[in-house]
Automatic annotation (TrEMBL), chains A, B:
Pfam families: HD_3. This is HD domain-containing protein. It comes from Pseudogemmobacter faecipullorum. Keywords: Hydrolase, Metal-binding. Residues 23-190 form the HD domain. The keyword Metal-binding applies. It comes from the Bacteria.
Length: 205, 205
């Protein structure tokens, strides 16, 4: 029989399972980016898997001192708040809403609710990792954010322009909203991908 | 300018990016299990993300000595071969095809091709991790496989019976094909989930 005392293992497992089942909803949050074959929009659950694989695969381009394991954990958690807030595309409304004060406040409330489903110790540690990613200051967070910017660029290149066409993104906007951030954590990856992205923005400085 | 010499970093990055873009196709491989809300079938990309989150969240139920980081890496890679082979549902054809010799040979060829897109050192280390998962003998692989069996049970409970109804699964079959394997790596998780699953199989021993 399962132990049903208040502090028993089954109470802890029940909280963890409630969190894991709630997390399933991230698979229904759609992003601006499409799959590489252009067939449909990507959801934030599969995007998070892809980013964890990016971290494993591109680890040798991380600056010294970056802990790839922590980067993977951050990337697995980083979008969970979108269950409540939805994805805010980086190029939507000409870049004005991504990371706005209103968006950030809504995301903080979402983190409180969603991580709050977990046992207290885990709620605190998962939320701390999410906050570190959001702050984007630690070396691990800077590298994680570079990958989060790099992956949609690769999807757009593979899939015929994708969200760049939809949002009429210009080359200066791509460099400012995306390139600077990829270069901050992973300069040699930006050097490489810049050359692949450049032909999609002809006749622009 | 990117370095285009044969051993230069840009050749390595190009191979890594080719692998990451090929990996995107896992988001189009559909599984028997549905999302927790029953709205559609789950794909193997988002399933792999969910399992990495399972590993992070349920780490305290792993046997001593299990390295959760390696478990997460295994789970992120474990289904990539399905890009070539498709998912083989555990309950399909009355359980006869999952892990059959023919299935395993096809998966080995797929691993050769897909991990072979990477630079040689990474191809070897990713394939070794996948083989360890497939063999299911090391403590890390045993725990990873327990989670891979546990997650669809939770999806079926949340989503109204899901693949159990579709494949007319019986309680003895569930215990044999699924329960034994969850219990092997995570006995207290099987104790907990068995009680939740049991009511879905009334009037069966």
């Amino acid at each position: 029989m399962a132990d049903l005392t208040p502090d028993g293992p089954s109470v802890r497992i029940a909280a963890q399972m409630a969190f894991l089942t709630e997390a399933d909803r991230l698979k229904s949050v759609l992003r601006a980016s499409k799959l590489a074959d252009g067939s449909r929009r990507e959801n934030s659950g599969e995007h998070s898997w892809h980013l964890a694989l990016y971290a494993m695969t591109l680890a040798d381009h991380a600056p010294e001192g970056v802990d790839i394991t922590r980067v993977m954990r951050m990337l697995i958690l980083h979008d969970l708040v979108e269950i409540d807030t939805g994805d805010v595309p980086i190029h939507s409304k000409n870049g004005s809403v991504h990371h706005s004060a209103a968006t950030m406040a809504a995301e903080a409330r979402a983190a409180e609710r969603i991580f709050g489903l977990l046992p207290e110790d885990q709620a605190a540690s998962f939320r701390a990792l999410w906050l570190e990613f959001e702050a984007g200051e630690s070396p691990d967070a800077v590298f994680a954010r570079s990958l989060d910017r790099l992956q949609p660029v690769m999807q757009n290149i593979a899939g015929g322009g994708g969200s760049w066409l939809e949002y009429s993104v210009t080359w200066p906007q791509l460099k400012e909203r995306v390139g600077v951030k990829i270069a901050r954590g992973a300069p040699e990856l930006w050097d490489w991908v810049r050359e692949k992205a450049r032909p999609w923005f002809p006749h622009q400085d």
